[in-house]
Batch of 2 targets.
Target 1
Amino acid sequence: MKGAWDEMIGADGRARAHCREYSDWLLAQGMDRLEAKSAEADALFHRFGITFAVYGQAEGTERLIPFDVVPRVLPQEEWLLLEAGLKQRVGALNAFIADVYDAQDILRAGVIPAEQVLCNSQYRPEVQGVAVPQRIYAHIAGVDVIRAADGRFLVLEDNLRVPSGVSYMLENRRMMMRLFPELFVRCQVAPVEHYPEVLLANLCSVAPRGVDHPTVVLMTPGAYNSAYFEHAFLAQQMGIELVEGQDMFVRDDILYMRTTRGPQRVDVIYRRVDDDFLDPLTFRADSTLGCPGLMAAYRAGNVTIANAVGTGIADDKSIYPYVPEMIRFYLGQEPLIDNVPTRVLRRPDDLAYTLAHLEELVVKEVHGAGGYGMLIGPMASKDEIAAFRARIIADPARYIAQPTLALSTCPTLVNAGLAPRHIDLRPFVLSGKDTTIVPGGLTRVALREGSLVVNSSQGGGTKDTWVLEQGAPERLDA
Amino acid sequence: MLSRTADHLYWLARYLERAETVARMLEAEQQLAMLPRPAESAERSRRATLMALGAHEFYDTRAPGATGDVLDFLAFDREYPDSIVSCISRARENARAVRGSIASEVWETINATWLEMRTFERRKGAERSRNLFEFVRQRSHMIRGVHVVAMLRDEAYHFLRIGSFLERADGTLRLLDARSSSTAADQGAIDPHEWTVLLRTLSAFEAYRKLFRGAVTPQRVAEMFILRPDVPRSLRRCMVEVRDNLHAVVSSTSAETERRAGALQAALEFGRAEELLPPLLPAYLTDKIEQLTLIGDGIARDFLVSEAVA
């Protein structure tokens, strides 16, 4: 797309100041060396088993999420801005969720229409009035940030339920250090490897009151889940048990896991299972992934669930447009990072505008995820637009519309050599007693030329994300 | 440790060991095929291998009568759950389910082995199993080596060891069973070459030479693999290991299983070589295989299958 901001190359065609060190190195590499390194990375990812199974295909078809050997580099001052903006945003989101399940001040103040919250399928009446430690609901948030053509960061989406991808942030770094050790001597890249340690401390900080040495477990749907590698990886790195629903039981509102030495009490669950499947007695009765009675133990305050039940109310696309208002309402501050301008099609004027400009806009289903249920006007055919128009008119409240943003690009190794590809960034914000963000995050890249869809389910890849510890070194020739 | 985790570790170890046993058995079969002997005796020997592994019924549904492709079947048939390729896949599935509980290097070695099995599978004809048995044996050594040096001596380690030694004991008995029933069927005409081949495929020929003078006899081979405490694959040696590791994980419910393991070990310690004379050997082996099965069931009951509400 024309006019996109490139992360590495400035408008003058030269490397941006903070990237010069890296860019000089990159230009000195032969294509064959980069390609050989890229092939080596693939072989290693296969050997480490950093793969996911593809459903409905013969045994042995496990896929890799493509990894690109060219990193995305952020200067320290930009990271500091992002860090402050993300902490502010996630702080407001947690305050919002706590308010929704408690006094509902924001609804009474009329900042957000009450029916949009209370009639939302993501609102969980089951946890209304249930107190949680530190009033934190979204302990782990993955916030998708993009950079617009003018170089500004914008938040595209908040992921507050079971955000994934952090293992790729860690493994991509490990791979880069293995492939290009010399680079890390030249460039001062902030480390990320302490993430699991920070995560564990964060989970311990939200244990039920009175528990000094909490037993923390990671709950997975099982080895056939596409994110299973990440679950096993994080549990191992934190040194905690990786449990499935069947490994636990509840007696007298206390949660236990079954061990070789008998039952052991569990205090904090880092769950990677959706709300719907947590407890068949409360949510979907046909769930075999959950643990019967878990919600009773939760309501009794005997176990902390992270992320808490009901966080979906804050990352729903129909609530997203109100996040800047939340920041003003709860924190009395102006947002440091803006939303992407969004039209809410339940409003007649937004609907009329959208229907008149479908060729330019991106239209999203409010409950869709993973890049599905979405129209990208400039890329769509006339027929696709007509079909989508009919769906919008049938139920406008199900959609929001945004301008088609030229996501920033970053040089990426493709068949034809190095070429710009669109990227986004998902930093992981940890909230507990403190709020912490490990510098960086997961950079996703749309590998197809011109594509704006970075989701791995739609052909997206990943890159290592570098936050430089200091500004670019002063150079005489600059 | 979670009961489910212990279960996966135990089976992970058993399947790896089983893959190695099958590879050793097939290696013996491959060597025997090169000896000058009548077609019927080769046929009998392959049939005995199938019987010893308990694979004959499944095999007969595949290729009734002839046993010409037993090697390919036991190495590569994905539908037969105890073929080498199936054992490695099952070991890898179990490892994947507990990759957080085993050292990463252990997981990577198992995963790499699983990936490389596919290059064997893609080959055609006789090329398929060339070097396969050696490959499986070496990978097995490597995985063992990695977990011995990289893993904490905690419950995870002990459950792996229990699985390995129980399965190895079982495998040793089945290897002896295959040879003794095949030679018994040859109307007592004992072919010393068969037993030499067995020694070689169990990596024990040199040890035999150190322990015994003179010809290789079935009785001495049996004595070596059943009663001697210093032979690494012997039943007695394996039971010492099973007991030690079992002792390290005892729970309030495991007394009966410990007693059984102890009783078997005592019987071996005070056993006599006369019990192993060729006419007595097949029944002796069957009895010991049954005892191992009971111990295995006990371990599953005491540690691995979790009670609904404890």
Target 2
Amino acid sequence: MNAALNDIVDFIKVIPPFNLLNDQDCHLIAKRTSIGYYRNETILNVHQNDQVMLYIVKKGVIAYYDNAGELQGKFSEGDLCSVLCRPDTERLQISLRVEEDCLLYAIDFNELEELLTEQPTALQFLLQTAPQRLQNTMGAITESALIASSLTNAPITDYYNSPAITITTQASIKDAAKYMTEKGVSCLVIMADEQPAGIVTDKDIRRRCVAEGLNIQHAVTDIMTANMATIDINLCGHDALALMISQRIHHLPVTKYGALVGMLTATDLMNQEGHHAVNLSSVIHKASSVDVLVELSLMLPKLQVSMAKLGASADYLGKNISALTMAFTIRLIELAEQKLGNAPVGYAWLCAGSQARQEQLVYSDQDNALIIDDSATPEQEAWFEAFAHFVCDGLAACGYIYCPGNIMATNTQWRQKKRVWQGYFNDWVTQPDPQALLNSSVFFDLATVYGDSSLLQDVRRNMLAKTQKNTLFQAHLSRNALLQKPPLGFFRDFVLIQDGNNKKGLDLKHNGLAPIINLARIYALAEGIEDVNTIMRLRLAAGTPSLSRTESANLIDAFELLGMLRAEHQAKQLIKGEEADSYLLPKEISRLEREHLKDAFKVIKAMQSYRQMV
Amino acid sequence: MNLIKSFFSLEKQRKRLLSKAPEGALKQYLSVPIIDLEQPIMDSDILAVDFETTGLNAKQDNILSIGYVALAASQIRLDSCYHQIVAAHCQLEDDNVTIHTITDQEKASGRPLASVVEDLLTALAGKAMLVHYAQIEKNFLEQACIKLYGMAPVFPIIDTLALAKKRHDRCSQAYSPSTLHLTSLRDEYGLPHYAAHNALNDAIATAELFMAKIQHSELKGDTKLKSLITSAFS
């Protein structure tokens, strides 16, 4: 190695994916580099001959545009212009223009591919599309979450499922798939003469059968993994985890004296960490006064931090925090009924927004509403006013600030009989003016916290029947929902937005999560899906005319990535005793995280522009 | 001096020297014709060169290390980069050690001057030599050749310092000599700093500065190479 090139090697080796390589490999790459200087406004020739050049910006700025001349992103110091590694079909759509005098490192991509043959991960990073990369990232994150989790020395018996679900070697792939569905499991152990012969998982069916076009009548043994890893029942959670990570597997048959006694999955290990939340919610249910609840609410930020530190996914975090908010609300309702007497007629206490979607984190504002049975008299309705004030004030005391948009049960408009609610939804769907669209985006995400859940169900079914047929309403809602756009990417230490302007920080909530939430809502309304949780909506919409399975998976990956970054960001703030927000500064995140975020933005943008065309 | 005449002489002189040159690297260098000085700079093969030396006097001081890199079709080709420490007999003086960060130990790992100069001459054949402040590289290389082969050859040299000086001299404003330092000139074009100061980094830095100068209108890409040759003769 020529130490004199160290400056260049040091520059290259921190740029993803070269950060995966050792110094020696980076040195080889440096040796294949040529340096050029380009003036402002130069159009870079990216498709000369057959030679594909990969550029790294040493100094200056390059902007890139699509066919229509729309700005797609910018590259500055230390950025690898990875758009140039795309297949020709994509690459030829891109044009690059120097925006500030540039010193560019150029590497012949074919030569680089050769250098990286031993480094498939690095090469993949360059070759894959944004959704593919995002998928890998989320896969790896789930695994490292497993490593980080504090599985102590608890024995495997604390986690595993017994008995293991098995099928014989005579079964076909179809039999296996049907049986797995019936049993609700993600894997089966294949038995030959009462002895385990192999294992088959969801993934095997996907990869070895469906993707390969294998006939599902083939024997399940054709796609199973023989010589599977197993774990002895006397070992602990940690050992199981270590084995799963080293073997890159998510399912471990458990054995006792060599005989199959159960199955342990990665999910089982993860779920183990949820006990704190369960404990807290049982204490909430026993609280004797609002003061006690206020005291307990102080634990919420700590709980969020500890769950985030354990590597819990954003989905898991949101579900737990939302469940606790629900527990607080229910306890407040019970206390209100103790004070005011029982409700005169049936009702449903509803929550809206992130809480309804089960995506809430601490320091959220309260969004709630009341549906009252149609039989209520005006005097009876008055009871509900006092009731609503008691609960909303109680929530405010517990840290859930009053909704700035006054979407609360204390507001007469949102404390109405079922009949009135049905009228509201009818109007919103038939006359989608801006206010109606705004209301619909809040009230289409509703969940019953307490009371007669059939009230909301009736209203919702009635509404979905209308939205599903009303394509004009869908179009209006889409247009409205697409107003919140993800940024293009990063530019030095700024966030680059659509018009080429810069912003200081990234609003993960409004410019990342909200666009996906909005898309999921549109799919749900178009397909008549009752679920309100974003990931569930995306899962259920997968394979419908609104959304393909791949697109669904891509959006879920993006949603989880953004949620995770928000949870990490909030954990940092909460540890410092600050109020948690969703405003991320580019300086806070690594280069690699920036790349991941850019991939997520691309996924969202693709789905938004697709929706725009519909 | 009449420029045109001097370039004719450059090629003529090469031939004259070739006939007298002893067998070896120098003769091989001289057997390749001087680069066509009528061609545009954009198309010219150039070798950016930098020496680290123990002092400024080529007759007394020694070459510590040599670095070079080729510039072709307006691209610095790092696959051609070269950096070699020269084994010398004298002890390093403390002052220079801090500048060049070459320690005695490293110097011990160096190669003899003859072999390093041979590498350089091979790489230089048929190319224009690009340096910043030609006096150092030109004088030290000539001295080395005289020592090794008994005679000094001719080199077509482009000197970024001389080019910058010419530009500054045209302006009536007075300027400090430090504005002609390599780092100051690079700052003018917003070129980044290199952390380490060594012969190869300086050669690359000089080549980058030269490319920036070409791209900025002061030097047109189709400018003929000969108009840049600042020093050709010993």
